[in-house]
Specification:
Layout lengths: L1 H17 L4 E4 L3 H15 L2 H6 L1 E9 L9 H14 E6 L7 E5 L6 E13 L5 E12 L5 E7 L2 H11 L6 E4 L3 H15 L2 H5 L2 E10 L8 E3 L1 H13 L3 E6 L4 E5 L5 E16 L2 E15 L5 E8 L1
Parallel strand pairs: 2-7, 9-15
Antiparallel strand pairs: 1-4, 3-5, 4-5, 5-6, 6-7, 8-12, 9-10, 11-13, 12-13, 13-14, 14-15
């Protein structure tokens, strides 16, 4: 029994001995006073006082982007824009309390970890922009902010800013998306001359439209079966085809109206025909617009030929 009691008595001591304190956590500190004063200068619209809270060589990162930082000059330009266009409130209501940490052996300064509600009212439209920030400030012994990491929902925030100026967003543009890969598969099938493969990318009731390329070649709202015949005609009448992308395709998710997905692309199109021993190369610049349904099938193709 004595051995059991001894073991129970030693175990908490062993657990306690395994912990190691790397710094001190404060609820109040001069470094926090610097941050609070900086917030006040921001909301008061005092750009000179705001800038005085930072070192001249301060480094600022957004959402943990360690590869590239901003400096004081860029931040002051951004802050002046906010002060000119918005009435701003920064608070900690319901978000959390700031933590001030002085790490052991760190002579560069003291860290302030903060969580704030940011509300800005557009002075012209009266529309409100709001988000929640998590910020990490390194405050030097001279009470200057020398590093600043800020985290927030950039997509929602920027959309709200645009909306507040009447620039309402109607969708999101992607330069990488599965529907773009579908388009590349369609183009590859055309280049190798596989009309059957091309047809698999479309829904059975897909419609096709074309503008340009000569009056005799224009068509409007033709069916997949009719388009298939044109593919076979074009493939059969050429010995080689190549599509070189111009720029890069855009996949757009529209939000207004019926919404839906559209992939826009631009191409340098080349085809080679042969009569006897003579070959002729024809080049066109074309623009394609493809509408996709929820199953990833193309429901509409619009072709513009320069």
């Amino acid at each position: 029994m004595k051995k059991v009691i001894l073991i129970l008595a030693i175990t908490p001591l062993m657990m306690f001995a395994q912990t190691k304190k790397s710094g001190v956590l404060y609820s109040s500190h001069p470094a926090l006073d610097v941050v609070n004063s900086m917030y006040k200068s921001f909301t008061d619209g005092d750009i000179e006082s705001y800038g005085d809270h930072y070192s001249k060589d301060v480094k600022i990162w957004t959402n943990g982007d360690y590869s590239e930082s901003r400096g004081l000059e860029d931040d002051l330009k951004s802050t002046e824009w906010w002060m000119k266009n918005f009435v701003i409130d920064i608070s900690r209501k319901g978000v959390g309390t700031p933590d001030v940490i002085k790490y052991k052996g760190d002579k560069t300064g003291t860290w302030v970890f903060d969580w704030t509600d940011f509300i800005a009212v557009n002075k012209n439209s009266g529309d409100t922009v709001r988000t929640t920030f998590h910020d990490e400030y390194l405050v030097s012994p001279e009470n200057k902010i020398v590093k600043w990491f800020t985290y927030y929902d950039t997509e929602s925030f920027y959309s709200q800013i645009q909306n507040s100026f009447g620039a309402h967003r109607n969708g999101i543009v992607y330069d990488e998306h599965p529907f773009i890969e579908q388009l590349k598969g369609l183009v590859k099938a055309y280049e190798v001359g596989d009309a059957n493969k091309m047809a698999t990318f479309f829904s059975p009731d897909a419609k096709f439209y074309k503008k340009g390329g000569g009056d005799t070649e224009n068509y409007s709202k033709i069916s997949l079966a009719e388009r298939f015949k044109l593919w076979e005609k074009g493939i059969g009448g050429s010995i080689a085809r190549r599509m070189e992308v111009y720029g890069y395709p855009d996949a757009i998710r529209y939000e207004k109206g019926e919404g839906g997905w559209e992939v826009l692309s631009w191409w340098n199109h080349m085809s080679v025909t042969q009569k006897g021993e003579e070959t002729t190369e024809k080049r066109d610049f074309i623009h394609l617009s493809h509408s996709f349904d929820d199953e990833g099938k193309i429901t509409r193709e619009v072709l513009w030929v320069e």
